[in-house]
Amino acid sequence: MPSPHDSPVTQKTFRTLLQALSRPGEIYSLSHVGEGQSWFPVLETLLDHEVSFAVIGPNNDAFARMVADLTRCPVTTVAKADFIIVTQGGSRGRILEAQRGTLEYPDQGATIIYLVESLSREGRDGLRVKLQGPGVKAEMSARITGLHGEELLYLRQINQDFPLGVDCFLIDRTGRVMGIPRSAQLEVE
User: Fold this and answer.
1) Is 41 helix (H, G, I), strand (E, B) or coil?
2) pLDDT tens digits for range 64-91
3) For labeling, which of 63, 64, 108, 165 is most exposed (least CB within 10 Å)?
4) How far apart are CA 164 and CA 175, in angstroms?
């Protein structure tokens, strides 16, 4: 029986997510999935019965049930989750509970997925974040609308002891995605 992970949409989504993490701050399009709920194909790509997830945000129980039904991925607490989905702008510090891996297995840190309003290279709306580090050409900056500023400070705190930390994806309503790996240094303006 073919796996949903074998579909062309899932494979293209996976390649796009890998590009986003390997080039922090670059904004990539998930145009192959269409507008609206572009995060569903991302969740279908990343989540399955072998990992766990938690949701932070309003109506998190209903959203978690919907994601679990879609992916067959078990729901757990933020502290135990492999993937943490933040649905509306901020976690109020809850992402500080996320798994950060160990020196022996730093890859066991959680992945945070923020669902935001918009990602852009230019403009005046939202937060301006600057990124440096591996995969970043000199210095990269982007605008994020629909994310509370303290969330980026929490990410910086979580990732201060590299290689321990979390990787992060930001996905906007129009299907754009940006990755912030644990190796990136970020600054909020």
Assistant:
1) helix
2) 999 999 899 999 999 999 999 999 888 9
3) 108
4) 29
Burial 77-111 (b: 16+ CB within 10 A, else e): ebeebbbbbbbbbbbeebbebbbbbeeeeeeebbb
- Do the strands 83-86 and 111-116 form a parallel or antiparallel pair, or are they unpaired? parallel
CB 152 within 8 A of CB 38: no
Under 8 Å between Cβ of 48 and 24: no
pLDDT surpasses 60 at 15: yes
Query: Domains of the chain (ranges plus CATH)?
Result: 4-188 (3.40.50.11310)
Nearest to 39 by CA among 144, 145, 169, 175: 175
Given a contact cutoff of 8 angstroms between Cβ atoms, the answer to whether 95 and 152 are in contact is no
* DSSP one-letter code for 58: T
Tell me the per-residue pLDDT of 114-146, one tens digit each, with 9 for 90 and over: 999 999 988 778 888 888 888 887 777 889 999
Task: Give the residue among 124, 131, 126, 164 at the shortest CA–CA distance from 147.
Answer: 126
Return the amino acid letter for 176: R
